[in-house]
Model the fold of this input.
Amino acid sequence: MKLKLRIWRQESSGCKGRMVEYEVDNISENSSFLEMMDLLNEDLVSEGKEAVAFDHDCREGICGSCSLTINGIPHGPQKATTACQLHMRHFDDGQTISIEPWNARPFPVIKDLVVNRSAFDKIIQSGGYISVRAGSAQDANAIPIPKQDADFAMDAAACIGCGACVAACKNASAMLFTSAKVSQLNTLPQGKPEKDRRVLNMVKTMDQAGFGNCTNYGECEAVCPKEISLDMIAKMNRDYAVASVKNFFGTVA
Amino acid sequence: MSSKSCICISSLQKKFLMAITGVLLFGFVIVHMLGNLQVFLGPDAINLYAYKLHSLPAFVMWGARLSLLLMVGVHILMAVKLTIENKKSRPREYDNEGTVQASYSSRTMPMTGLIVLSFIIFHILHYTSRVVPGMEYDDKIPSYSLEFEDGSVKQVFDVYAMIVEGFSNYFVSFFYILSMGLLCMHLSHGLSSMFQTLGLRNKVWRPRLNNVARATALFIFIGFAAIPISVFSGVLHHNDSNTYSSLNSVNDVQNDNITSEGTQ
Ligand code: FES
Done:
């Protein structure tokens, strides 16, 4: 395949970025999107030019490192697929593909397509944990968990924290990410004691990081490679409403 | 981010306020529409309704007006705050900015909201305060003799004639129908969105609520737009004498004496 690429190039976080056009040839339809990027970089290096920086790690859709907005859609056109798992057969020969970094003020570009996602870490640090001593593993049935709850928590836990939800949102809202983390822990018995404090703190940190506000478009859900649903946001909103009332009366645990 | 350093009210609290004022305003819209539809029952019905509304104790009427104003104010204030923050959070546009599943009405909420707001202002000046130049109906429209059940007759303001007169103006009717269309769009996203914001929606209920929201919004559009359309098609028209009941006057098309001297 022969492709025309329009790629965001930016020296460093302080510099201004711009779209630069490249051409790649002899791309196999079976190669992944990141492999295509590797080939481009090999070409660039052999021409003595600087390679395009992009994030990647596992390349099997589980780490959440890869973060490319492909033709305006985070992780590209394929549903429930990370950029690393996206194959070139989903594109046409001769097509122009634009590749950009996540677009959100709280995710400043470090270089080219690499953004700083530590705002997510701050959200996790403010409540994405259970602060009891874990000890050794319990007997499997010691704490009965209804199947429905276990499934819901598992769906929430599928979030790999890639940030595509923020990148897709016209408001750069991090509510899908935050709500997945809140829902995962708030649904399970181990997480319930700190339920109120968790949701209040995580939402506060999310606001302070400068993420926008959800307007219920649902674009986040549409691009999420792990298909986290808007139900998580509804759950977070519900928990937050309850926690705010308790907080008002000073009864948050 | 500077605007967020004032931790007075969180993102979710703003959204809750948005949703709660939204649902209350929606309630008002429904009641207003049902009230308006009485115009189809004839001048007696709508004029009696208007008379009763206006003879409510002042504190009830002004209480209702002020709380509506407060709700609109909070709704707009939150909308402005949220929109400014959202714009700040997204530094640039993508090369080919597009959407995957967001509905058109969900993406145009600020725009539809703004136009509906401008409509509300005009609408109040036009039909409530009646101060729009050339449309000061208090001087133009003769009062209506309303007959009560006990046989007494009272001279009241002729709301029926005002509606017919008002909507005989093309611009007014066009703006009205357009605004109702935009309100319909606004509500078709807003109604279901409200449940999401308050955490009262899940996978099963989302499609149902979306459909209910669309159907309700359409119902509201039809309910409101029916009135100017009926004025144009001649279903609603002036009576030759305001003591006529609507049933008598339906056959009485020649006698629309007020339109002929009205606003051309
Ligand atoms: S590189 Fe790990 S998810 Fe794509």
Observations:
- The longest helix of chain B spans residues 58-89.
- Strands of chain B lie at 144-147, 153-156.
- The interface with chain A takes residues 1, 4-5, 7, 10-16, 82, 85-86, 88-103, 106-107, 109, 189, 192-193, 196-203, 206 of chain B (CB under 8 Å).
